[in-house]
Each structure stands twice: as structure tokens, then as C-alpha cells.
Amino acid sequence: MNDSLSLNLSIRELFDAPTVAQLAVECATARGGPVVLPLEALPRPQTIPLSLAQKRMWFVNQFDVTSAAYNVAIAIRLRGRLDVVALEGAITDVLTRHESLRTLFPMIEGGRRR
Fold it and tell me: 13-47: per-residue pLDDT in tens?
């Protein structure tokens, strides 16, 4: 770990930190600053290949377009006054953060997905 993170952290310091949060503090102290690597966006290809699970879902859907196999329907009863603006904001935030909730599987190359 010392070589990977360019740290000088002893075994004692490692085991004195019983949680990941405390270990992060120990690492930051050993380095002299926070241990946070910046996230960098990579260039995206025009077409992103499907994972094996996505291929399976696509195939099931093509095999039976009326199937609701991967749909999960739920109903939630809310009590009290509903703050519609806050609810819309929360849903928008979740959709913005999780690309998988916005993913489409368009047909390409004669309808076959890779």
C-alpha cells in the first residue's frame, strides 16, 4: 500500500484505523494532505458495447416484446403533505447520477446488438 499510494504508513497505523474513514485520515496525515484522486472523464465511443447482462435483457425483450420480466412495479403510500417540487428534484437527481436509469438499447447493424 505504501508504494501504491506513495505513503509511509506503518502497520500499527494501519490497524489503529478500524474503519475506512479513519484509514483515509491516517493516509492523508501520512502523505501530508488529502488522498483524493480527481475523476477524469474519458472520451466515449459512438457506440458502447453491451455487458453480458444487458445482452441477455435485450435478447429476452426481442424474444417476447410483451414480457414484463424486467419491470418492477411498486406502489408507495405517502402520508402528510407532499412537496412535489422536492420529490421531482430528488427523482431528477437520482436519474442524473445513475446513467443506467437513462440507458437505451437502440437497434444497430440490421437490428443486432453486440
Answer: 888 888 888 888 888 777 665 556 677 888 888 87
d(CA 23, CA 29): 10
Where b means 16+ CB within 10 Å and e means fewer, 90-102 reads: eeeeeeeeeeeee
What are the CB-based long-range contacts (under 8 Å, 24+) for 27-31?
31/5, 31/6, 31/7
pTM of the model: 0.44
What is the chain's length? Answer: 114
Closest CA to 14 of 3, 32, 31, 2: 2
Mean pLDDT, range 65-88, rounded to an integer? 88
Position 83 scores a pLDDT of 94
Q: Indicate the helix (H) or strand (E) that contains 63.
A: helix 52-63
> For the purposes of burial, counting CB atoms within 10 Å of the CB of 17, is it exposed (0-12), middle (13-18) or buried (19 or more)?
middle
